[in-house]
Amino acid sequence: MDERYIAAIDLGSARISLGVAQVQGDNTQIIYFDSVPSEGVRTGAVFNPQRCGGKIRELLDKAEEELKIHIHQIVTNYPKYGVEQQLATGELPRTDPMSSISDEELDSLKNVSLDSYPLDNSATQLIYGAVVQSFATEEYINAREDDVVGMISAKLCGNYKLFIGSKRTSDYIDAACNMAQIAISDKYFGPEVEGKAVLTMNEMENGVALINMGAGVTSVTVYHKGVLRYYGAIPFGGKTITEDIRYESGFSEALAENIKLAFGACLPEKLQNLSDKILQVDLGEDIPPKNLSVRYLSEIITARQKEILEAILWHIQKSGLADNLRSGVVLTGGGCELVNTANLLREISGYSVRIGAPRRFFTTGCDGLNSPAATTCAGLIMEARKHPHINCAEVPEVIEVPMAPPQKEELFPEETPVEETPAEGPAEVRDKKAEPKKPRKEKTIKVIKPKPPKEHKPIQLPNWIKKIGEFQESLFDGMDERSDESINNRG
To answer: Are 196 and 220 in contact (CB under 8 A)?
Structure first.
């Protein structure tokens, strides 16, 4: 069974995430997931390729070192904001009207429809994605993809919803990956793959709105009868809430983000005793600490979160399917993890609301992949695994080089005669090359005999030293004689 790897990068406004999956047939295992603070990305679009490329390279180097693989290409997502949707139709005449319609014909019809769609300005616009709405044959209209395969008809028509965005933003993604020295295998429209990662088929059949609350963009995707029917986005998200806390409290952006993650919540009246707490924030640098009420913090967050959700509800009304959402609303993305966000949406909309994380379509032991913030990365992996030609990494081969046996070093190697070959060139040069080499002189070892020790002559003392010595000897001789007389007298 062939083994391949999929590496997916989610270019978010707050964090850039990397997920690596190992695919063996129908089995998919997520073997790596990590993220770093984002740089060079604003409202879900790359605006500084150099800074963004540095973060991508940082993620890839860390993954390659840990997994011991070489990642040579990735799949990634298009921006979510600034996307318009248009309807397109296409028709495919069939040469054999009595043959069954196949999946290959549906793919050909989709390609013909996309290629023939007239963009307003092909130099600045690009089709990010296309979703099938319905098919039509000679006898049936509004047929679904599952139903039309196998039908018999002389013609086949298709209706598609196109998502059109800026070509420049796509070029910036290419530039960032070029600076990170990584190739792009494919790009996908994020909202299209996120729904497949979070929603169930029953929810998409009965009607559901998937709201992805990111840091820079909040988007909504509406499904009905199993098909993506509407998409909309606003350039507000979790970073907007952080900016509100920063301006109201006078903290730095990093400190405001940490306070939001640690104590942030919606609906202060539902916090019970926590709303009475006072946070004492140490600002350092000889600045007196500042107090911040948890209740006031919750009021700041609630005001902005309510504004964001009401704008998304306006998009749901615009879709024309607000009354057909039998499965309610599913919240995903990092912004939905603020406490009481689902309760706030439930109060202002009346829909049933749940928090959505990536479903278990694969096995994994990675931390963070079961979080709503990993929805886009999981969706990219699920979409890329459908294409057998995508293989983003390879295991480097380890080549074992046999070691040569150690050679004994000879003290006096024998000279082997070398056959002289006739050299080309002038005669003078040939004569010099043809001259035999002079024999090497044999080395001789000199034996150095030790020198005999020198004879030491007696030292001649001066006369005054001799006289002192004679005087001392006469003294000691007299003392010996007197000592002998005393001994005899005692006896």
So the answer is: no
- DSSP designation for 225: T
Residues 6+ apart with CB under 8 A from 171: none
Mind giving me the DSSP string for 53-65? HHHHHHHHHHHHH
CA distance 30 to 197: 14
Distance between CA atoms of residues 132 and 147, nearest Å = 13
**pLDDT of 478 over the 70 cut:** no
pLDDT for 448 = 46
Q: Where are the alpha helices (DSSP H) in 79-166?
A: 103-116, 145-148
**Amino acid found at 148:** V
**pTM attached to this predicted model:** 0.78
Cα–Cα dist 447/250, whole Å: 92
Residue 247 corresponds to which tokens in the numbers above?
A: 């301006």
Q: β-strand 227-234 against 218-224: which pairing, if any? A: antiparallel
Distance, CA of 72 to CA of 177 (rounded, Å): 11
Match 């999956």 to its residue by tokens.
21
User: Is residue 475 very low, low, confident or very high in pLDDT (cuts 50, 70, 90)?
Assistant: very low
> Domains along the chain?
201-357 (3.30.420.40)
pLDDT digits (tens, 9 = 90+) for 321-337: 999 999 999 999 999 99
pLDDT average, residue stretch 296-307: 95
Please state, for a pLDDT cut of 70, what percent of the chain lies above it. 80
| Helix (H) or strand (E) run with residue 29 in it | strand 27-37
Pair 85, 164: CB distance under 8 Å: yes
Q: Is residue 347 exposed (0-12), middle (13-18) or buried (19+ Cβ within 10 Å)?
A: middle
Percent of residues in the chain assigned helix, strand, coil, to nearest 5: 40, 25, 35
166 vs 79: CA distance, rounded Å: 9
- The length of the chain in residues reads 491
What tokens appear for 152 in the block?
A: 């018999």
Q: Which residues of 244-268 are buried (b: 16+ CB within 10 A; e: fewer)?
A: bbbeebebeeebbbebbeebbbbbb
For residues 13 and 334, is the Cβ–Cβ distance under 8 A? Answer: no
Summarised one tens digit per residue, pLDDT across range 102-136 is 989 998 898 888 888 999 898 999 999 999 999 99
* Dist CA 450 CA 440 (whole Å): 31
Question: How far is residue 449's CA from residue 457's CA, in Å, rounded to a whole number?
Answer: 24
Residue 84 bridge partners (DSSP): 164
